[in-house]
Structure formats: C-alpha cells, structure tokens
Amino acid sequence: MASAKGTQRTYRSPLREEAARRTREAVLEAAAEVFVDEGYAGATIEQIAARADVSRPTVFGVGSKAQLFALARQRAATGGRLTGNDEGFQRLLAIPDARRLLEEFAAFTAAISQRLGPLQLVLEQAAGTDPELAELLESSQQELLECARGIVAAAAATGSLRRDIPCEAAADMLWLQIQPTNYRRLVKERGWSNHAFERWHAAAMIAALLEPSGPD
C-alpha cells in the first residue's frame, strides 16, 4: 500500500512581506536620489545603501547598479509604483472625442515627464558610455513610440485624424512631442508653469494631428 505524502505549505508572513516591500521602496527612492545627485557613473552601491540606511547586501538584493537605475526609473514613471500605467492609458484610448483625448493625453504625459525628467537626463547622459543604459534608452524610446501609435490609432478611430498625414508619420510626430526632454527644457530651463506646458502640449498635438475645426 502506497504511503500518503503530506502537502507542504508555504508559510507567508504579511508583516515580513510588508517590511521587505518598504525596504525595497526605500532602496529605490535612495537610488533615484543618488543617481540624480551623482550621475550614473558617480553613483555607488555604498552611497545608495547609506542613503537608504540599509546594508550593501540589502541593496544588491534589490538589484545590480543598472537594475536599480531601471527600477528607479520605472518607479518614477509610474508614480511611485512598480506596475505599469496600463489602466490609465487604456482609459485614455477609450475617450471618444479626439480633441479631449489629446488634451487628457497632454496632462498624462506631462505628469510622467515631471516625475521622470531628472532620471531621464541621467539616462541620456550615460547611454553614450554604458551599454546597459544605451539598451534601456533604446527600449524606452520604443515604448514611447508604441504609446504614440496607440493614441494615433484611437484618434483615427474617431475620424478626426488629419487625412493628409499617414498614421505612422503622425505617430512619429507624436513620439517627438512627448519626449520628456521637452518638459525639462520648457519647465525646468525656461521657467514655464506646468499648466502652461500642458496647454501648449495639447494645442501643439491638436494642431499637428487633427483636422481643423470648422468655424463656430
């Protein structure tokens, strides 16, 4: 007669999991600060550990230097989370009016650029000398292009997209418009308010991509 084997249960401690999550968040927040302050090349694991008030092995437990940068950047892009903004983006795509779609998309991308700007500058500066960051920059640009393609497709579905511009060209134009560098240049360097940037951002996208409105 075969002997019965007991089922092994995996023990999970909510308190321990919450403590680990908070430590991870502290490490990534510290990493973002150190990368911005010191640049990618100047940042060290020791500096990140000291800023987060954790041990060096704890930092390595979250990731390598390149992984820490990628995770810190992702966290900034998603507003302090390590999950994507898919739900918010999908809500944008469902807006039936193309003009309102681009207005809300302007606010959506401006908010991301505001959070992401300092780390994006570090990425752009380091990509020329670090292969891992060059790959990250390339993949981030591809993500922006896919985002632009989705918005163009949604606008085209409303029948409001300009008929004299191919959809792929329209996506390229939008991809250029939503670069975080634009936010940094106008808001951080030229002193625009966030509201002024959003208004310009929306107006520029509407003028470039949508059929002109008729006279009121």
The biggest beta sheet, please? Answer: none
Termini separation comes to: 88 Å
Assign the structural class, choosing from mainly alpha, mainly beta, alpha/beta, alpha+beta, or little secondary structure.
Answer: mainly alpha
Low-confidence stretches: none
Helices and strands, in order, run as HHHHHHHHHH
Number of DSSP-assigned strands: 0
Q: How much helix, percentage-wise, in residues?
A: over 70%
Strand percentage: under 5%
Estimated radius of gyration: 22 Å
Number of helices in the DSSP assignment: 10
Coarse morphology: elongated
- Give the overall average pLDDT: 89
Multimeric state of these chains?
single chain
Structure commentary:
The protein is mostly helical. The protein has 10 helices and no strands.
Brief summary of the model shown:
With about 220 residues, the protein is mostly helical.
Q: Which terms summarize this structure?
A:
216 residues, mainly alpha, 73% helix
Topology of helices and strands:
Elements: H1 14-42, H2 45-52, H3 56-62, H4 65-77, H5 86-93, H6 98-126, H7 131-157, H8 167-177, H9 180-189, H10 194-209
